[in-house]
Structure formats: C-alpha cells, structure tokens
Amino acid sequence: MGIFLAIVTVVAYHKINQYADQMAAQGRVDAIIALWVPFFAFAGLIVWMYHVLAHRPGGQPIAALEFAASKSWRFIRGIIPRRAQA
Q1: Cα(30)–Cα(5) distance, integer angstroms
Q2: In CA terms, which of 16, 23, 64, 80 is 20 to 30 Å from 54?
C-alpha cells in the first residue's frame, strides 16, 4: 500500500501544480499563492509522517490509511446483500 500511496501522491501533486500553473497563466490567481500553497500542504504531510515515525515506537503513518481502508471495506461488505445458499 505504501508504494501505491507514493505514486498517487506524486501524481496528485504534479496535477495540482499543472492546474495551479494554468490558473496563474490565465491571471485567475497569483502564481506565488497557486504554486506555494500546495507545496506547503504536501510538505506538512511529509513532516507529519516523519514525526509519526520518529516519536511513536513502531508507529507507521500509513497504518491510519490501512485502518481506514479496512473499516471502509467492512462497511461495504456489510451493505452488499449476501447470496442465498443453495
């Protein structure tokens, strides 16, 4: 799950930068704000992940995502009707 999350994060950051660049080129928003706000948001995420690794024994920042995915999957399986047994 970690590699998948890393790929999604890099692609999302790239797409956000492309969108911000287009908005700045059209003059809809200042270029400094459009490009630096996503940078600081992703940098904050990275700092939080390093903090979790450094200050929680055995703590993995991705564990929260795995927990949420597991809980979501259990919810989805609960609302899908089961097949009748023959």
Answers
A1: 30
A2: 16
Give me the phi and psi of 3, to 5 degrees please.
Answer: -65, -45
- Tell whether the model's pLDDT for residue 17 goes beyond 70: yes
Count CB neighbours of 66 within 10 A. 13
Expressed as residue numbers, the domain containing 16 is: 2-78
Q: Which two tokens stand for residue 1?
A: 């799950």
User: 5 near 62, Cβ under 8 Å?
Assistant: yes
Of 4, 40, 11, 46, the C-alpha closest to 19 is 11
Is residue 31 situated within a structural domain?
yes
Average pLDDT over residues 9-16: 94
C-alpha–C-alpha distance, residues 26 and 65, integer Å: 36
pLDDT at position 84, please? 60
- Secondary element (H or E) of residue 14: helix 2-25
Specify the number of domains making up the chain. Answer: 1
Question: Could you say which DSSP state residue 1 is in?
Answer: -
